[in-house]
Amino acid sequence: MTEATTHAVTLQKVVKRYGDFTAVHQTDLGIEDGSFLTLLGPSGCGKTTTLRMIAGLTSITEGDILIKGTRVNDLPIHKRNLGIVFQNYALFPHKTVQENVAFGLKYRKVSADEARRRVGEALELVQLPQTADRFPSQLSGGQQQRIALARAIVIQPDVLLLDEPLSALDANLREDMRVELKRIQHSLGITTVFVTHDQSEALAMSDRIVVMSAGHVEQVGSPEEVYNRPSSEFVARFLGASNILEARIVSADRTGAKVETQGLGTFQAAIDQDETRRFAEGQKVKLSIRAEKLALTATGKGAAEVASGDAPDIARFDGRVTTVDYQGQVARYFLEAGGHQLQAINTIDEHPLSEGEAVSVGVRARDVVVLPQ
Amino acid sequence: MPSGWSLIRLGTILVYLFMFAPVAVVVLLSFNSSQFGSFPMEGVSFRWFVELWNNDAIVRAFQTSLVLGALTSVISTTLGVLGSLAMVRYSFPGKNLIATALIAPILVPEVVLAVALLLFLGALGQPKSFVLLLAGHVIFTLPFVVLVVQARLVGVRREYEEAAMSLGAGPVQTFFQVTLPLILPAVLAGGLFAFTISFDDITGTLFWKPGGVETVPTQIFAMLRNSISPEINALGTVMIVMTVALPLLGAAAARRLSRGRGGG
Ligand SMILES: Nc1ncnc2c1ncn2[C@@H]1O[C@H](COP(=O)(O)OP(=O)(O)OP(=O)(O)O)[C@@H](O)[C@H]1O
Ligand SMILES: [Mg+2]
C-alpha cells in the first residue's frame, strides 16, 4: 500500500490565494483513515478555507487534494461524498427532520424502506428518534446540531467535515456535545476533520491537531505532543498558559541541552534526539515552560530543605508572588523572579500562597522546551 | 374646542375620502339600474355586469388582458428569478452594469420606454405584434420581480445550498429542492405584481398593441371617447376586484404556505 491510500484525505502543496492575499500558504497534510483531525488556530488563520477546499466549496489556487487516493481538484462537491456540518446547522427549514436526514439518500440508490431504516438508525445514534416529524424551528439549538450531524453521517460519507459545529451552543451543552460527537465518530470510525479555535475542544477530541497561524501550519501532532512539546513560540502561547524566556545554548548533546537565561540562571532542558542537530553552542533560543510545570514552595520552610529533596534534574530559582488568582482546586500565581514576570498554576493543598510571599520555584528538565528563536 | 388629534383625524378622513370616494362612486354606480351613470341611484341591479358579459369587444379585451397578464407574469418571474440568482449568488465582470440595467425600466418614464421599444422594432423592420406587446410588458414588470426576489434571496444563507450539494444534490436539484422553496413567497409576490401591473397598464400598451387588439384598459379608454356608459363602471368594478383581491389572496396563500412548513 502506498502512503496516499492509507490516508483518507491528502493535501499536496495546496495554496489558496484571494487576489494578492494568501489565505493558505503551501500546505502538505495527510489525514489518516478513521482518525479525528482538528484544525486549530486563531480567527482568520485559514481553517475554514482549508476545510472548504477539502469540501470543494472553495477552489484551490495551487496543489492537489486527494480523497481516498483520488485527485478531486475538479470534482464538484456533490460528487465527493462528504458529510458537512455547518456552524449554524443549515437544516432545511421547509423540510421535516425526517426529510432533512433523508435528503442525501435521495441522490444515492437507496430504496424507500432502506432509507427509512437508515434515517431511523441515524436518529437513534444522535438520540433524537422521536423528532422525525418536527420542523427544525421546533427544535432547540443542541437538537438541531444533532440532526445536522445525523443528516451528514446517514449518507456514510468518506469524510466528515465540521466547521466550529459547537460554537453556537452554550457552554454546558457544548461539553456534552463534545463527548457525544467523539462517541459517534468513534463508533462509526469515520474520518473527521474538525475546525475550532477552542484549544480545549481540540485537546479533548482529536487524534491529531494541526495548529495553524496566518495561513501556515505551525505544528502537526497528537494533543499531547502539541501541548507538551510545542515546536514554536506561537504554539506554546496558543495552547494553555506558557512562560516564554529568552535563553542561550551552553551545550547540547543527545540527552539534552544546558541553557542559560538572563536572571534565572542555567537550566537543563530536554530535547529530542533528532533536535540535537538544530541547536549549536552559543545559539540564541527561547524556552517554553507551562504554567502548571512551575512548582512553587514557600521559602519560609527553609530553602535548603526544599532543594535537598529534589531530584537531580530539577532546577531552582527564587521568586515572589505578586498576584493570586484563586480558582478553588487550583490557584494561578503571578510571580516576579530574576526580572521576569512568570505565571504558575499549582494545585492547592490546605491554603493557597499569599501575595508578597517569597517562593522557591522548581522546574524539571523535561518540562523545559527549547524553541528556535 | 377640537383638540389637535381630532383635527388630524378629520384631515386623514378627508384625504381618504378624496382618494377613495371616486372609486366608491364607480363601484356604487355599477349597480345602478338607471340608464344614466349618475346619482340619484334608481335601484340595485346587475344589469351592467350582464351587459358586459354580452359585449363581445369587452369579453375579448378581457381575454387578451388575462392571457397577456398571465404570460407576462410567468416570463417575468422566470427571468427575474434567474437574474436574481445571478446577481446574488455569482460574481462576474459587468455585474453592476447589468444590475442597473435590470432596474432601469422603473426609472425611465414609461412613455420613453414605449417609444424606444417601438423605434427599435421599426429599425428591425418588424410590424407591431402581440409578441412586442408581451415583450414590452415583460421589460416593464421585470424590475419589480427582480427587486422582490433579490431581497428575499439575500436573506437565504448560502449554507442551505452548500449543505444540499454536499449531500449529493446537483445545482439544478439544489435549486428546486432548497432555493426555490425558500424564496417561494417572494416568487409568488413577484408574479402577482407582474400580473397586476400588466393587467392595468395603459401607456405602454397604447403604443405597442397591434391594430384591432384591445386590453381592458385600452378598451375602457376607447369606450370613454364615445360616452360614459354605465358599463364602464361595471368594468371598473371588475378590475378593482381583480387587482385588489388577487394580491390579497396571494398574500394569504403565502402566509398559509409558510405556516404549513412550521416556518412560523
Ligand atoms: N472570499 C474571500 N475573499 C478574500 N479573502 C477571504 C475570503 N474568504 C476568506 N478570506 C480571508 O482568508 C483568511 C482566512 O479565512 P478563514 O475563513 O479560513 O479563517 P478562519 O481560520 O476560519 O477564521 P475564523 O476562526 O474567524 O472562522 C482571512 O484573513 C479572510 O479574511
Ligand atoms: Mg472559520
From TrEMBL, chain A:
InterPro entries: AAA+_ATPase, ABC_SmlMolc_Importer, ABC_transporter-like_ATP-bd, ABC_transporter-like_CS, Mo/tungstate-bd_C_term_dom, NA-bd_OB-fold, P-loop_NTPase, Transp-assoc_OB_typ2. One of its GO terms (molecular function) is ATP hydrolysis activity. PROSITE patterns: ABC_TRANSPORTER_1, ABC_TRANSPORTER_2. It comes from Marivibrio halodurans. Gene3D superfamilies: 2.40.50.100, Nucleic acid-binding proteins (2.40.50.140), P-loop containing nucleotide triphosphate hydrolases (3.40.50.300). Belongs to the ABC transporter superfamily. The lineage of its organism: Bacteria, Pseudomonadati, Pseudomonadota, Alphaproteobacteria, Rhodospirillales. SMART domains: AAA (SM00382). Coiled coil: none annotated. Residues 9-239 form the ABC transporter domain. This is ABC transporter ATP-binding protein. SUPFAM superfamilies: MOP-like (SSF50331), P-loop containing nucleoside triphosphate hydrolases (SSF52540). One of its GO terms (cellular component) is ATP-binding cassette (ABC) transporter complex. Keywords: ATP-binding, Nucleotide-binding, Transport.
TrEMBL record, chain B:
It is a multi-pass membrane protein. The lineage of its organism: Bacteria, Pseudomonadati, Pseudomonadota, Alphaproteobacteria, Rhodospirillales. One of its GO terms (cellular component) is plasma membrane. PANTHER family: PUTRESCINE TRANSPORT SYSTEM PERMEASE PROTEIN POTI (PTHR43848:SF2). Its main location: membrane. InterPro entries: Bact_Polyamine_Transport (IPR051789), MetI-like (IPR000515), MetI-like_sf (IPR035906). Belongs to the binding-protein-dependent transport system permease family. CysTW subfamily. Keywords: Cell membrane, Membrane, Transmembrane, Transmembrane helix, Transport. It comes from Marivibrio halodurans. It is found in: Cell membrane. This is ABC transporter permease. CDD domains: TM_PBP2 (cd06261). Residues 62-250 form the ABC transmembrane type-1 domain. One of its GO terms (biological process) is transmembrane transport. The chain crosses the membrane at residues 7-31, 61-85, 97-124, 130-154, 175-199, 232-254. Pfam families: BPD_transp_1.
